[in-house]
Amino acid sequence: MCLHNKTILFLFLFLFLLLFFPQANAQNSIPMLKTIDVSFNKKSKNFDKKNFFPLVIFKEDTWLSLSELSGYYFISTPPDISKNNNASSETLFSVTVSKNGKCPKAQEASLNYSSVYKNYETFGIGATILKQNVSGEKKFPFHYSFSSPFSVKVKAGSCIFLGIDGSNFSSENIYTAGGHINISYKINNPQPVSTYLVGLDGEFMISANNFYRPTLNAYVVLPVSYKNNMLNRKVINVFGNASATPRINNNQLEIQKNNWHVIHIISIYTNNSCQIAFPNHKNTKFFWNDKSGTSSKQNLSFVFKKSSYKIATLTLGDGNLSSSTKQINKTLSPVTLHDGDCLVDAIIPVGTQQWTPPINTESQIYVQMTN
Question: Which of 76, 199, 294, 350 could form a cystine bridge with 261, CB 3.0-4.6 A?
């Protein structure tokens, strides 16, 4: 073959590699969107069984890069005239990635989460709580985006799956739970920066009758120290939701105007102030209470001090006594965690002159960090 023909052949091969191979590799890492609808009927008055549903199944070993979850969850409790059409139902929706090539079957049931985590070698992407104290359907739109996508190495056969853990405490009727879920992700796309997730999730029964006399603030606290894996990591994102649900007494729900509020303030207590705010606290996740303010006396919670770096605020209470639910989804300029700091969900009651029944408040709030 002459030199001229060899040159032409070389150029042809070079152009072929340049044009086709990069496109093939790029094809594997283009953004993908999967939309799934799940609906499940259940009859239960406890949380004994949790049910799981595959959403995305991976056909080969790959790196998953998950950047966004959106859509809505719903629960539906049928009317019960004997209970004045009031209800007491709640469901926890969780999104999880299995990594070991296994995936739960649709509606697969388990009595506890630990066996699920062990069987499927999981990586959790947070959860959402939804509660009812009035019958009918309640729908909660959500949109959680991750500025630094979660990067997970998965084996063929692994999946992203949904957990539905709920109950209708108020009656023997069947209730329905489900969702319309959009998952934005890439495959074959390992991220250069690893991210970590910790949960500020907790549940309290609190009183918002603090117009004249103080009641109690409540706290979910994650201390930062050399004894846990948060030291020197950077907080980059906060997402999740919280609910506040007044108790129904003798199947009665007050419907008149009642402007109570429960405020969740997500904050970082800085400058070694965790020990000041919570003396002699544990070095692991803990819960705390102290006195609230009133209409005339300032709330002395440490969350309002200068060394409290406030990240986000959720105000619950919709002007009546129905269950209230809101979400957080906030990207931050990186904030480095130091020894003596703590991550805090401070729960502050704000009452009115009207009497308000005890309020159940639950947070499913998650903090994303990098090295």
Answer: 350
